[in-house]
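Before relying on records like the one below, remember that each one covers exactly one chain. Contacts with other chains, cofactors or solvent are not represented anywhere in the record.
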Amino acid sequence: MITRTIGVIGRICSGKSTIAKKLSAYFNIPIVSFGAYLTQYSKNNNLPTDRESLQNLGNRFIEEDSSKFLQNVLNSQSTIPDSMIIEGIRHLSIQQELSAISEKSVFIFLDASVETRYDRYRNRPRESDNIVSYQEFVTIDNHIVESEIDLLKMKCQIIIDTNSESYENIFKQVAAFFGK
């Protein structure tokens, strides 16, 4: 069983990777990423690695067997860590499964306006992203794989507005959750 899980949830460009890296450094625990898994899986199988292809692949894995998808992501690590930050959760079934296999878990939702997220999208170098118009970004943001994000927000113990809030407060909140 996993001792501690910190789940990082949010829409595209809400700050998930940034927060996950900061939490990883602060708590000295590894990051497990659904996006990284899907990208590596695609490369290993000569599949396209653009955002829409990765979204479609992730959605297919969820539809086929969400538990198996989670286990494959965890097994992609050299060893399954006893504590982890898991970034890129997009489905209730994954959040529920992580809660079930973790002694303690906390889920953090990162919230940001679509305008802020689009600005971040345009200014970040990401292999899976081609610069698109604002309207195309909104379309990507509403892909079926993103459809449970707002439901997941209601399941999170911590919600951070990444439009304006400092990341520093998150460390205290997570530490309090784990009794540190």
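The mean pLDDT is 89.
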